[in-house]
Amino acid sequence: xxxxxxxxxxxxxxxxxxxxxxxxxxxxxxxxxxxxxxxxxxxxxxxxxxxxxxxxxxxxxxxxxxxxxxxxxx
Length: 74
Prior knowledge:
single chain, globular
């Protein structure tokens, strides 16, 4: 499931859809989902994209957030 921070990482603001198709569409992608390989490739494409506001890769933002959450739980 995609958390709200993941949606925001792609520049979607406060939209918190959990559907990969919606996230892909908001990032300007179209894919024929519901196949494991296609879903994985679409996810990788979204994560590889730069965030519109910061220019940083989406994956970098998600990893940073995960590290902060991990440190705060100690």
